[in-house]
User: Fold these one by one.
Assistant:
Number 1:
Amino acid sequence: MPGLPVSALMVVCPVTAAVILSYRQHGIQGVSRLRKRSADVHRLGSLLWLIPAALLKPGLFAISYAVMLWMGVSLPTHQLGGAALLALVFFLSALAEELGWMGYAVGQMERRIQALGAGIVLGLIWAGWHIIPFLQADRSLSWIGWQCLYLVSSRILIVWIFNNTGRSVFVAALFHASGNLSWQLFPVQRSAYDPRITGSIATLVAILVIATWGPRTLTGRKESTVLAQHSQ
Amino acid sequence: MVDRTVAVQGSGQSNRRLMPFFLSAFALTLPLWLAACFPVS
């Protein structure tokens, strides 16, 4: 991937950690349960949730593009070449990450600090995990700060999608990948991407989600019904 | 009271499982960060 540092390979680390700990706790059955979460699209109750899972992030980036045009920023035109291959690569890498973050960790966090708390804390950890690659890519501290805001807001949105789709890791990975693909395709190869704009829009959307679905589960339902799906 | 006990026990179990997960994920990532900082020519 042009411009991406060696540390981009770190996407396999969350799933590796989850596999090791699942094996230590539950043996090969634990690993098998985790593996099955990579194709758990059957958990999805309503297909309507595939619409925000696949299109919300492209929409956020399209709005960012429109806002930047409105602000008078000179933007290059879109180049969509190689999008299919990028989509596949981003989905597989997102799946590796989400098997760890959502398939292993988030359920335990939600039991303790509820859905919004889990989204914020996991989002901060996730953002911290990205800081060294950002520094290696010579990003400014301001850019990193705004990008961390984008990542924390995105993690709240991932928890929202996850909890409303029967806690499907597959759908969470789809949402994650659609964001990475939109970012990579932002003209040209994300060179014009401004995390101040996209981070602010993502935060507004996350606040809207919290206000609409409630902070406890981000589904409008009780914790007991949402968390019960985690152990299935 | 019973619910509270269960909740506290659950939190302890969560911590025992979460801390090793996050530490492992960061520990596994560390060599990649170092490899990027100090590339071998």
Number 2:
Amino acid sequence: MWESCTDIACGNIFALLNEGPLTLTIFLHTVIVLPMFFIYFQEKKRVNEEAR
Amino acid sequence: MSKKNASVWTSIRFWRRSAAWVTGTATVLLIWLTFNTMGQISMGSDADLANGVKKRIPAPTVINYHIDYVMDQKRGHEVPVIGQKEPFFGKQWSAEEAAALLHHGKLTSQAKNCMNCHTLLGNGAYYAPDLTKAWLDPRWEDGTMAAITGKNSKEEAMAEFLMHPSQYPTHARMMPNLNITQDEAVALVAFLKHMSSIDTNGFPRNFSQNAKRLEGGTNAH
């Protein structure tokens, strides 16, 4: 699953995140989208409380 | 009871928070990426070369070193390997001299509009051969061009060719005479040698194989 880093900048955080099947694009999108679920449920809770 | 399941999708606050999160995170990431890239795109120093520190873009004094183009099995493409010192036009160039020479070469390449026909580091045309790794072309390396131009070294042969390209029909599409002077030719060769030492992640792809396969031809289709 994990390929050895083939770039010349292997110590770089973005090079590490770019290894194997977990590409930088997928990683960054995951990092951005996951907290949006948190925002959604927090707002849902707030909206429900206000509606009561 | 029905009010308990009020929709979040119509909540202005939800959309505002989501937009702020995405925009804010993307902004921070892009700024971080920009500064993170600085180390990769900045030129190395003379000390890096002397100490064998690999930089993607070596110092101008790389013209004082032998440059090889070697297949790296791990990376899956050829990479420039900076070897032992070798004279460039019969001498070793100081850091200041090399930087000035490279600058002159760059200005000459722009003044003579090389990109009108050639490609340099991915920019330019494909009418004439890609110049990114021109210095490493086997035809200059194996003595063919030195013999044709009657010169003793690769750099002198290259400079001679640049000054009188129409005298040496080496390519299917002959290069026109651009009235390049001796000084400009030396600077251009230094510019080309430095460019070939840049680690371009294997660009142009399969350079050495194509150079042999398309000998005297062109990779423009």
Number 3:
Amino acid sequence: MSMIERILWWIGILALVVAIIGVKIDISKLEQKAQEVSQAATEGGEE
Amino acid sequence: MNAKLERVLYIVVIGILSLVLLGLGKTEVELQKKIPITAEELYKKLGNPKVTLQIIDVRPYEVSEEEEDEAEEIDYYTGAHIPGSIPLPDCDESKAPEEALKQINPYLPTVIVSRDGDPEIFKKCAKKFTIVQNLKGGIVAWDDAGYPEDEGEYEPPAAGGGGGCL
């Protein structure tokens, strides 16, 4: 396997890892937001 | 290492990472469904030409002449609607105008607009779209915030699909 091919494979892997980290960050933000929304809904329902 | 074996190894790693990404993507879409969008956020998104958004209005399309005097303008689509929104009363294709049906794209990011952000109609409608959010407070919140509204019959855009431009 040539060096160029190896570099290309690694670029692909790194791109996927970066995408996974990005989506994970988005998910944690969304989870926080969803929790706030459900909390607000519960408080609204109790009133 | 054998070149063939190395290639297989890379393919397996990329395959696993792709599956993980796909799974996380699905989780993200499901989470987005749980979070309603506020009128302010929607207004900002519509003002951004880079954002493609489809607005589906699930209120009744129009009211009969007898009901018109009693009904408020925000009770039905032809009375007042978000500019560019597509009517789909009760999320039922049989109740929508024919020209509106042609514009609906289930794969576009979609915002569901009801009278007051009813979660039940949203749940029913959410099944029909891939990426979907509910407008918090519905058209009432949009109207209260004083954001622009159109009135009258649905007019499809001159070119292209989607909708929701201010």
